[in-house]
Amino acid sequence: MNSIAKLICSALVAITMPVWAELSRDDAAAVAQRVSSGRVLSVDKAGSAGRAVWRVKVVTAQGEVRVILIDAASGQTL
């Protein structure tokens, strides 16, 4: 593969892959715990419409399991 083709492939991958630099896994867990007042069960990376999100599963004090999506760039719940 020549260098131009490699550059084009790299650019396409960069456009389609979400960026994971802003909010850490621990920060996402803290946000989810704060908004749900629950206990964090798991934190996973996910992508939604080209947007990087953290998928945080929590169990509330009432025993309800909830999934909270948190934008990885802004830290806002979705």
Give an overview in words:
By secondary structure, the protein is α+β, with helices and mostly antiparallel strands. It has a domain at 18-71. Helix content is 33%, strand content 33%. The chain has two helices and three strands, in the order ααβββ. It has helices at residues 3-16, 25-36, and strands spanning 39-48, 51-59, 65-71. The chain has a three-stranded antiparallel beta sheet with strand order 1-2-3, with helices on one face. The termini are far apart.
Q: What is the topological layout?
A:
Blueprint: H1 3-16, H2 25-36, E1 39-48, E2 51-59, E3 65-71
Antiparallel strand pairs: 1-2, 2-3
Overall average pLDDT? 81
Derived structural class: alpha+beta
Return the string of H and E elements: HHEEE
DSSP helix count?
2
Estimate the helix proportion, in percent: 25-40%
Q: What radius of gyration results from the CA coordinates?
A: 16 Å
Distance between the termini: 41 Å
Silhouette: elongated
Uncertain parts: 9-17
Most strands sheet: 3 strands, antiparallel
Tell me how many strands there are.
3
Strand share of the residues?
25-35%
What is the topology, as strand order, of the major beta sheet? 1-2-3
Question: What are its keywords?
Answer:
single chain, 78 residues, alpha+beta, three-stranded antiparallel beta sheet, 3 strands, 33% strand, elongated
